[in-house]
Design brief:
Layout lengths: L9 H9 L6 E5 L6 H15 L7 E5 L11 H11 L5 E6 L7 H9 L4 E6 L3 H4 L11 E5 L5 H7 L4 H11 L11 H24 L4 H13 L7 H12 L5 H13 L3 E8 L4 E11 L2 H7 L7 H15 L3 E13 L2 E15 L2 E8 L5 H14 L4 E6 L6 E2 L5 E4 H6 L7
Parallel strand pairs: 1-4, 1-5, 2-3, 3-4, 6-8, 10-11, 11-13
Antiparallel strand pairs: 6-7, 8-9, 9-10, 12-13
């Protein structure tokens, strides 16, 4: 049933549609197996046709298809596309562009031809690198794709919403999981991806000398989702617990490799009142909680951290940059005045939009509620403040304007930040 159901990815489809004919190469990036090819070849191409574009004016080339192996030669690919172009406007969709040596020259050459709108995806580390846009001489326009959000996952799941939520927070949102019918298959798929695809690719691309050290860093990041850390702390922990003699500079480089592959995302600390970033420590979130859980062999299923990771990914997939908020406050204790730092889990920004978001698995009461709300009340601006809880509750708004909403309602309602 799942295999015959189209998964809607309207967020990314809309972003591609808004970028049509903007003069840039549309570069679809994201962690491997998150659905980039499906987005481009199925959803985007289908929408163009339904909008009246002649299918003959769409040139799709799947470069991982053995039938297109001759087109992996850059000259042959360029010539094939040029020969396919006639009068009018054409869309060029190049999937798995990394199969072409020197693909940058091909793409830049196509951009010089009037009447061509060019879109590319790629699934190796080079195409996933955050600096890929420089390959196109400033003419690249990135569309970042994440694994399925819970709302996308729920549209494809045939069972009840609570069952979908249990599966999602355990196995995550990589689309191909929908074809795995039992938990054993899902687990094997995720673990194989982490070990034999993602990390192996990082080691080979970056000539990583200590694959075991990289694994150790992944262990710590997965175990400490939502916790503040830095390279020195990770280095010291690896030396003490795993006896890896890996210095903090090497840890810093390896963290960069993990970020460039989109496996992990760094949330920096931001001083809200001081309007400046604090260099260290930071938080790291897994791009998919299923990958995180599988790497740990499902041993650490802390609902608090998993929910926080899911909320972070949801905000990022909605197009927000996300920081950890820090608010300095003064308090007097035993007659002594001192400064203290209060933390807001997420400061989500997109242009002029800003939202402050706290994640609390259990609905806080009494002193706990006061602790959760205190950072909000010390911010001192009028941007919206939202507390997301794991409880299935009816949305409420208090006298300070703070909105409390259940996590599933937040995830399933595209406009939940504005309720």
């Amino acid at each position: 049933m799942w295999l015959n159901m189209e998964i809607k990815r309207d967020r990314y489809l809309d972003r591609l549609l808004k970028r049509k004919w903007n003069g840039s190469v549309k570069v679809v990036t994201g962690v491997r197996r998150c659905g980039k090819s499906y987005l481009l070849f199925n959803l985007f191409r289908g929408r163009l046709i339904s909008d009246g574009v002649d299918p003959e004016h769409i040139i799709p080339v799947a470069l991982d298809d053995i039938r297109n192996k001759p087109l992996r030669d850059p000259a042959a690919l360029y010539e094939k596309i040029v020969e396919s172009v006639g009068e009018g406007e054409y869309y060029v969709l190049l999937d798995e562009i990394q199969f072409v040596d020197g693909f940058e020259d091909v793409v830049n050459g196509l951009c010089r031809i009037p009447g061509l709108d060019v879109y590319v995806t790629g699934s190796n580390s080079r195409m996933l690198s955050k600096d890929v846009l420089t390959e196109f001489r400033g003419r690249g326009d990135e569309v970042r794709v994440f694994p399925l959000s819970f709302s996308e996952f729920a549209t494809a799941y045939p069972g009840r919403e609570d069952e979908a939520w249990r599966l999602y927070r355990t196995f995550g949102g990589l689309p191909e999981l929908l074809a795995r019918v039992d938990e054993e298959q899902k687990t094997a798929y995720l673990q194989n991806l982490m070990k034999n695809v993602y990390l192996k690719d990082i080691v080979e691309r970056n000539d990583v000398r200590s694959a075991s050290g990289l694994d150790g860093i992944v262990d710590l990041l997965c175990s400490s989702v939502g916790s503040l850390t830095n390279p020195l702390k990770i280095s010291n922990t690896l030396k003490a617990s795993k006896h890896f003699n890996i210095d903090d500079e090497t840890v810093c480089r390896y963290l960069g490799f993990l970020e460039e592959s989109f496996l992990f995302q760094r949330a920096k600390r931001y001083d809200i009142k001081g309007r400046k970033y604090l260099d260290t420590p930071s938080k790291y979130y897994a791009v998919d909680v299923g990958l995180r859980n599988a790497w740990l062999n499902f041993r650490q299923q802390e609902e608090t951290h998993i929910m926080e990771n899911i909320i972070y990914n949801e905000l990022r997939s909605r197009g927000f940059s996300v920081d950890v908020g820090v608010v300095e406050s003064r308090r007097t204790q035993n007659g002594v005045s001192e400064y203290m730092q209060l933390e807001i889990d997420f400061v989500a920004n997109n242009g002029s939009q800003r939202y402050y978001v706290q994640s609390a698995y259990r609905l806080p009461e009494g002193e706990k509620e006061e602790q959760e709300l205190r950072p909000f009340l010390k911010v001192g601006d009028s941007f919206k403040k939202i507390m997301i809880v794991g409880d299935d509750i009816r949305l409420k708004r208090d006298e300070n304007g703070v909105v409390t909403i259940g996590v599933r309602e937040f995830l399933l309602n595209e406009d939940s930040l504005n309720l």
